[in-house]
Amino acid sequence: xxxxxxxxxxxxxxxxxxxxxxxxxxxxxxxxxxxxxxxxxxxxxxxxxxxxxxxxxxxxxxxxxxxxxxxxxxxxxxxxxxxxxxxxxxxxxxxxxxxxxxxxxxxxxxxxxxxxxxxxxxxxxxxxxxxxxxxxxxxxxxxx
Length: 144
Description:
Blueprint: H1 25-129
């Protein structure tokens, strides 16, 4: 007989499952894709949050400006009312002063006419009694 060599293959069976992490190309790709996605999402989230903070600070500034405008509007309204009162007081005083000046003018004219008539009466009396001469002045007794 001839001797034929027999080949034997050694097979080991591992009754315990393998402990640890098995890294393959596929798992590395998934891991890297996850990291890239997380970094992109975090960048987008940071941009959104910074935009929201900018908008929030702008809203706060607008609120402050509106409150200041409202208080300025109230101040302007109070000043307007005060100015209206002062204007009315001025108009009233002006009317009173004009009325008093008109009364004084009438009184002066009345006194002047009375004095003029008294001086004419005295002149006539003195002319009748003697050699009293009257100087001629230009007189205007008409109302102007």
